[in-house]
Amino acid sequence: MSAAPITIALLGGGTVGSEVARLLVHDAEDFHKRIGAPVRLAAVAVRDTAKTRPGIEASLITDDAAAVAASGADIVVELMGGIEPARTLILSAMAAGSSVVTANKALIAEHGAALAALAEAKGVSLLFEAAVMGGVPAVKTVREALVGDEIRSLSGILNGTCNYILTEMETTGSAFSDVLAEAQRLGYAEADPTMDVGGFDAAHKITILAALAFGGSPNFAAAEVEGITGVDLLDIRLAGDLGYRIKLIASAERAGEGARVQVRPFLVRKTHPIAQADGALNALFIEGDRIGRIFLQGPGAGAGPTAAAVAADIADVMAGARRPVFQAPAASLQPCAPSAGTAAVGRGYIRVMVRDEPGVLASVSEELAEAGVSIESFLQKPPGETPGVPIVMTTHAVAEAVLAAAVDRIGRLPAVLEPPRLLHIASI
Amino acid sequence: MSAAPITIALLGGGTVGSEVARLLVHDAEDFHKRIGAPVRLAAVAVRDTAKTRPGIEASLITDDAAAVAASGADIVVELMGGIEPARTLILSAMAAGSSVVTANKALIAEHGAALAALAEAKGVSLLFEAAVMGGVPAVKTVREALVGDEIRSLSGILNGTCNYILTEMETTGSAFSDVLAEAQRLGYAEADPTMDVGGFDAAHKITILAALAFGGSPNFAAAEVEGITGVDLLDIRLAGDLGYRIKLIASAERAGEGARVQVRPFLVRKTHPIAQADGALNALFIEGDRIGRIFLQGPGAGAGPTAAAVAADIADVMAGARRPVFQAPAASLQPCAPSAGTAAVGRGYIRVMVRDEPGVLASVSEELAEAGVSIESFLQKPPGETPGVPIVMTTHAVAEAVLAAAVDRIGRLPAVLEPPRLLHIASI
User: Fold this and answer.
1) Does the structural domain B138-299 have CATH classification 3.40.50.1220?
2) Which of A256, A332, B135, B232 lies 20 to 30 angstroms, CA to CA, from B290?
């Protein structure tokens, strides 16, 4: 084991960057002992050099990110986020022969194939454990621990902000917009919350895991994404009455030779471990042919967990393992997508607001029967504060297109007061 | 990435060995793609060559384990279990320059330091993911994913047989001996169940994880081990009334510069994820300074999960990562143990069977008060099928020695009918 110091350059000196810098300085001896080589923090590129950054030596700080990226450090750690300038800087770092460690899920999900191709051409590593589930080793588990298995499906809670909002809605009985405003006040949600509540952040993460699990390049464009802005408190309550919680589930499952990737509010049985991951927790449920069902849970964000994940990647680069960035050489990768003609099948939750009059239930059930949708359970609540009466059905598994068409037909019945709400029930 | 085939020799052709052999043959192409080099199964050493082993080419099978071990294969996979001859064969394999992958928890827990020293001297890998929690990457997570963190504690359910028995006792209301007999009939428990129900198997596993987490060599001799043979159905019921489940918990926590390792039946709050891991499931709860709390769960045994873990290790050897076997060079390792003078502190559950007469409760509480043990909750059940009346207390945190002394004093009271039962309450 070599004693030459490994040089590390940081792009980004925010909360995560500062924690990584502290870790590399404060735990240097530990790191050395565990990996067999010393590390040396060489530079930290920041936007505002005037800001004090406790724990980072002032002489290392610069605002010339391009120079830091191209400095030829052994490892360049990118913690800026967003597509540009991160993408250009990472390409320049790899061109200069540096391995790259990043927490940038958007970049890997949207440009992973091109980055992997350059990494492999230059013989450097490109690692991104911190992009998914913070300190929980989701990427490592899917890429390394399950290399001898065929993964069947991944389902997870990958966005802590959405999970916090849904948990608060359920426990406090407040509407989405009120909980979001409170979360923004507390700093749990961004001023522009679209990436989180629109489902895009979770979609970036599941896109990355799907590529690793099913052997393709990340294909964010093929992800079906629905966020939580349309989740109604009434549905959280009614789903609860039926024994379910509503969770924003990011899932990827085999579909023919490829995989289907989606992010959606799903009903999950209250007894399932994923339903019990509350607040800002992240959770991931992995099903494989050999391993059976594995469940991982932990904080999915925060400076500490993210820095620990970055450190794990730095250690992996130092340990010298060589694997394809995704599960095969980049040149051979196809974008991960469902095979053509694979029909999505699932169970549905349908909530219809109807006028409280005789015969309505019969006409709704007739429409479902005619469409070929079979009802599994049924719930009618007494008239309450809402206009009309909610009737709720869960269905047996049926082609999603058939289910959507049936719901569309129900919506056109005269006694139905507003478009019915269709949610999907998780198959886990 | 080299195209020279990696040769693999198996020691052991039982259910796990056969599954590994099938995996290496059947998934060879996948493996090749993911790792960048082909694998070739070179030999399988078995006890009984006459037995048919579907999926393993007959010409590979031999009963000369010593020759297979010393054959100089790139990787020797040991799946025989037990200390000897596994130990001698592994030493011989490493001496011949082979990397070793093993599922042998007893061997790593009891002889890990010597094996690690030889592995490092010969420059070969020694990996044992399959020794703990089957296909759940517990070893990888502690060794690699948490390399940039300080682990505070590990608590887990690491023996599926014990967890199955305790779950069955709780759900069916049957006594330990009846459930054990049924488990043996079904093949879930061995004819000699001592390794499992005595807590030794779980102790081997937590000993390995503790060495990785706290930076020492495995020190099985220092583990405090109590199995489940003394767990009484009455305590499962009473703990349930208080909001707890009784689980065989294997734990390791920092104690001074070292760590304390124990396996014991613990009371765990029903709402904790570990309490909800039922049946043959394994679960592990990791607390770290940076990562916070991570939870892993999955099947901890079986041919499929174990073979997947072995495959992950084979892939790691092929990927060429070089790390110390434990978290530092073997020569520098001290056996993992608590620092001298670190007092164990915890909360207790005390069940006392008393004569149903006035003043008994007062005398019991007086003894506790005099010993300096403070009661947190108290439960007295009406007289039932047992002789005497059970009174149950949970205590606030107190030095374990103080708690044990107090229980001893209570046992000597005239109205107390049998030695009180003391169980510990998990601090997770």
Assistant:
1) no
2) B135
